[in-house]
Every structure is written in C-alpha cells, then in structure tokens.
Task: structure prediction
Amino acid sequence: ITNMSATKVHYEGLAKGLHLVAPFLAEFIGSFFICLGVILIPGTGDLPATNGHKGVAMGFLLAALVYSYGHISGGHFNPAVSLACCIRGVLSPLNLFVYMCAQFMGSFTAGAAGRFFNGEHSLEPFVLMEDISPMKAMIAEAIFTYLLANSVLNSATSGKHPNNSFYGLAIGFSLTASAYAIGDMTGCCLNPPIAVTLSTLGKTSDGSHSWANIYAWTAGPFIGGVLAGLFFIIMNPEEKDLPFKIGNITEYQSLKPPVNHTRESRAPSKMDLFYEEN
Result:
C-alpha cells in the first residue's frame, strides 16, 4: 500500500509538472514552425515574407498550429499577440514573460535549422522598399498586427461565441490578408522574434548583418498588440473576465484565461490547470 501511495504521488507530481511545461512547449513548437515557414517557404518577391502564395501558405500554417495547440496555450506564437491577451486579461504578466521566452527560443531554433538546411544566406533580414520610410513601415506593421491580434481576441477569447470552430481560420486568414496588403512594403513580419532572428543569424546580399530600422518590425507589432488589447476592452465591456471595467478601473479581477472559449462552456483545459496551480 505504501508503494502504491508513493507511486500515485509520483505520477501526480509528474502530471503537475507536465501541465506547467505544456503551454511553454506549445508556444516554442508553434513559434519554431512559424519562423521556419518564413525562412523555407519560397516567396514571389525579394523580401523574406512577401505576398502571393507565400502569404497563403503562412496563413494555412498559422491556422493549423492554432488548431493544434490553441487548447494548450491559446496558440499565440507571437509576443505581440501574447501582450494583447495580457492586456485583455487572459494571460498573467508572469506567463506573458514565460510565453515570450518560449517564442524567442522557438524562433532562434528555427533560424538555426534554416541555416542548417539552406545556409546563412537563406535567412535574409527584413528590408524596406526604397520609397518606404521606417516610420511608415512601423505604422503598417502596427496596423496589421492589430488585425492579427484582434482576430485572436475576438474569435478565440470572446464569450459571445463560445465553442466555435472558426477561430483558427479567422486568425490564419488575417495573416494571409496582411501578407497581400504589406508584403511588398515591409515584408509583413508582424512578429518581433522573427525579425530579430533574421537580423541576428541571417545576412543581406552584401554579406552583412542588418539591424537597420529593426524597430519597424519590433516596436510596430508591439504597438499593434497593445491597441488590440485596449480596443477589445473598450468594445466588449460586458466580458466577465476583463482585467478592469471601463469607468471603474481596479486591479486584475481574474488571470484565469478562457482559452479559445469561456470556461463555463467547456471542460477545463491544461491552461486552466496551469493557472490554478500557479
């Protein structure tokens, strides 16, 4: 009996540890494949993430990953999206940091894999069109990151349409539309770790690392994520799990996220357990 009790305690501890690690792994794996897709999927232009069939492929890839890991971590794979979810109230500040670490690690691992497969010149840093200023690029990245984060918040976290099956398509299509819109202008990054990875591990055509105007692809997406989180709160004041109510700002009322759906309408997910145990 003693051995059985000890074994039960061991497996309970192991299960708890897996619940803690699962969201981190989901974000790491998803970020890995998103960045690897940007590196390896051929485009129709000279930019790392241009429009055309590459935008369609990346949209389908993102949708597939969101459907695969959304029930575990929420399927962010992007620190700008995670920031929006934190502002919206479905991700704690602590776990925002954990998610960002996983996302940057996944992207850098993908960068190393891309260099292994195709060499360092396959990792071309993002560059701007000659007539596009860094400020215009940053604004464009902010606007379309807002579109992406807005799709995540309203299709995957809103209680107005729980248990929907379209959230992955909405998120993936928003990326495809963004690629068509600004792919030839900025490269359509929308994801800071990807920009940092390509600038760190990749080289331009003249053989140099490019950090010029990196803020356009880093600050821009974060600005878009902040705006998406704030506008969600303004436009959805009836959501029960908002971090604060308009007109009555208080501390965070709840940091337990309804991953993809409201908690009341579904069985607890690994992410629910993750928050309950921390």
Summary: Residues 44-50, 247-278 have pLDDT under 50 and may be disordered. The CA atoms of residues 91 and 173 lie 24 Å apart. The radius of gyration is 19 Å.
